[in-house]
Design a protein that fits this description.
Number of domains of chain A: 3
Strand content of chain A: 5-15%
Strand order of the largest sheet of chain A: 7-9-8
Number of strands of chain A: 13
Radius of gyration of chain A: 48 Å
Structural class of chain A: mainly alpha
Number of helices of chain B: 10
Shape of chain A: elongated
Number of strands of chain B: 0
Largest sheet of chain A: 3 strands, antiparallel
Largest interface: A-B, 71 and 51 residues
Structural class of chain B: mainly alpha
Oligomer: heterodimer
Chain lengths: ~800, ~270
Amino acid sequence: MKRKLQDFKFEGSHYDRPNQKWVCGHAAEGKACLAGPDARGKCQATFECRPRKDGDRWVCTRPDMAGGPCPAGPSPEGACAVPIPPCVPSPSLRKRRGTTVLLVVALSLAFILVALGWRGNRDFLSPGDLSIRHFRAASSNQCQACHESANGAPIDWMLSSMKGDQALQNNRLCLNCHELGNQPAKVHGLPLGEILPLTQKAEQRLPKPSKPIGLEMAQLLAPPPPGGHDQDIACSTCHREHRGIHNDIMAMSNLQCQTCHAQPFHSFETDHPKFNQYPYRRRTQIQFDHESHFSSHFKDPDFLSKAPTSCYGCHSPDSAGARIQTKGFEETCAACHQDGIRGVNRVGEKGLPMVALPGLDVATLAQHGYSVGDWPSNTSYSDLPITPLMIWMLSADPEIAAALETLHGMDLVDLSSATEDQIRASFRVAWAIKILFYDLATKGDETWNKRAQPLLSHPAYRDQTMKVIQRLPPLTIMVTRTRWFPNLSTEVPKYLSDPKAFTTSPVPKTPPAKPPRPTAPSSTNSVSLLPTTSATSSLLPSSATGAGSASSLLPPSATANTSLLPPPAAASGSLLPPASASTNLSPAPSLLTGPPPPTSTPTSPPTPSPTLKTPEPLTRIGSWYRVDSNYAVYYQPTGHSDQMMYAWYDVMAALSSEFKSPVLANLIQVVDCPADPGLCFSCHSVDRQPDQKIAIQWRVSRPNHLDHPFTIFSHTSHFGVLHLDRNGCIECHVLDAEAPYRQAFAEGRQDPHKFVSNFKPITREDCAACHTEKLAGDSCMQCHRYHIGKFVPSMASPIQPALNPQKSEKR
Amino acid sequence: MVQQVKNFARRHGCGLFVFLALSLLSLALHRSRVINLIHCQVYSGLTLFAVLLFLASFNARKKLPFLPLLQASTWMQIHIYVGWFSVVLLFIHMEYRMPSGPLNTTLAILFAVVSVSGIIGLWISRTFPQRLTWRGENVIFERIPAIRFQLKQEIAALARKAVMESSSSAIGDFYVTQLKDFFDGPRHVVSHILSSNKPRHRLLSSAEAIQRYLSPEECNQLQDIMELVRLKDDLDHQYALQGTLKCWLFVHIPFTYGLLLLAAFHGLIALAMT
């Protein structure tokens, strides 16, 4: 039988109390005292018993468990004879465990305090590395760069944690670096007025599809917080940081994208909304008919050598590989179209009429008691209306603008059927023209500046207006004045001092003496004082009907308008070359006083120069010249990219955009003539923008880094997978030979969104051939952006410290 | 075997079912919140903290035995399954990624220490009591030092007696070189935990090796000594296993409190920065 190590008999066994904190120091020797240590671990040992008095004797009371009564017994005084040697109590296991708990808790508290108080605590408390995009913020160890509540002492952090969700307040800090438009916290950054109609439109347009099962379950288990389109969204809702340097903070799953959408769908392949004329959302800025070029022009033997052999001839990917750009004019169109733009082989004037004196029925005016003083009688040979430049300058006076409006569509050469108002308006406009010439002669450039002040004071148009004004040569106008109005310096002051002196009582009506007209049908072929966009504009020499218009009013044998005019009319030359200018200016000794009084009557035409038959061939391109037979001053463009033409048409667009006056608002339609010298509008389209302003598309579409469209596409990433070596671009861009592409660019068509492309639209099925979940992927983020609009990157650096870095450092 | 499975299913079926159901529900809720762009870590973090508090309350429950709050064994079962659930919640909260950042890493390490110590404690509490019945007498842990002291006195007395009664110093030398240290305190704790009998066999083999040099009387004395060696080894076995049964809580409980403190701090920082 095995020996028993423990004795559980009551007389031989201690009652162990493991819950007590202290254990007697003699316990390890099997001699633990019965008293044991106190609660604080102090030894309470005295004697092994407390003797009991039994009659007159003291009796030992040591228990059997401790060995029973001692042989010596108590002393006569009743003291125990066996003292217990004092011990050092040891902590019990429970006590030690409690101590360990306190130690760990103390260490944890110390850990927290050190974390809060340590200077490098920002890094210590960071829940993880920031992504590579926010690396700078991480390196600067600045929590407050992204967390509003990180400002202040750690106790403030604790308090701010009680305030609830502060993610929206942190948006402000995100926007310190990220420019996301005016309403960055709104859905897609769009105002309610834009996003709500889009949603309603989608709901109406698309069938109600069933939700993906994952989305259905998610919204059942954890319904998204209630909110509408106008609810602000925190940046951190989608962009989760502190997940490591390689974490893609822009990654979003398809279900996440669809959690807000009213029309969720299962996959791109099956039920993504069908594409709507993708990617042709508007007409091209430059009118280029691929179909006619491919089928006709590029096959023409005359142009075959100049035609491109592949799409790369005219297009190339941008640096990011996203967009395919059209190359510049010099690389693409110039080979065939440069001469046409310069006016080579053009019939008629090669310049654009900028100043012209209209024909005027002076006799009828006189019958009504209105005298316009000297007015060249043979201006009726000119078929030019008042030019847009003159309308612009004359309209500076509201009364004249009103008069011009009254005369809209009228033939000033024949005022016999005009009303009294129109007669009066004709009188006022005629004098306004003479005053304009007079002002130019006496005040020079100040006249332009003063009359163009509304545009010059507009920051959006100032530069272009200045360009136009700076390029108008005053010398040209001076000489024009001396030839066209020899007595201007005396007439205008007289008119200005007493306008009534030029009005008398009407003369009894007699058949008016019509000025000589160059052709018989001219009475029906009326020339309007004001340019119009209707049928009357067909009388313009070169804009509406091309170069033949002026000639059509002349005898059939005419080949050059100057040589076919009455003999004096052809005398003018280029005014820019100093030699010819001095030649032409020689009759004018003083610009202010004008030339010597003419020997002929005021109505006689200017004397022709015996050496200059026609000014145009002698004129440099990009300069001004005057044709006295037309009573007009022309500007001849340098060719493509002529800065004057840019500025001039932009000013016309500005006038049409900014002024409600019908006369000015109509100007862009007047100048928008594809056949005008320069041929600008045969390629460049004129758009009316959503804000009703006019924009002339001078450039092809270029990627703008400020633009963040909803749909994105990278061309170059598709080059390697679409067998482009076999089919090229037509793998996706299929030419549509039947498409009425040119219609969208017809005169007066200013809505860029009403058009049909040369190419068939790309459909969802085209893309879904590869973009499935298992092949090329069908993530929303592959083709779409959340933040859409035009964002100007914010510059975080204030100017002043940048200018004076030493001072900022001291601060 | 079938009966064992039935017993296991009866005892653990309900707990397992609730654990699996809660885990799946938590996973689904987290996934749903992720899809719906809700700050899911706030929810999972608060849930995890509440679960940790509940787990820690088991210790408080043990200190309040007078309260009629279910049996301790029921609490233990709940503690075990909720503990497993907290591990699932932690993975959800960390979004199945390794923690990063000093504070989060410290928290994760603390959680791992508490969890692993709990798992080890669970295994110990299920296996060691059985092993304790295999060898030696089941002594009260607090009495082991006194019994050890008693055996030490006895072996010393036997050795002294053997030396004095014979002219040979073989037993005395054996005691001094091998037995004295063995009886001085608990020995071979790790071997006992690992169920290794090598130290015991080595000592007994050494005792048998010197037997050939002893007289018959000395051989009898050696037999008594070997019996004490066996008793001491059995006592060490009890000490090692019972000590382990008690000492794993030295890790599990203190680090639980440290974990709770740091988790609360982490939660405040997270809420402040969210």
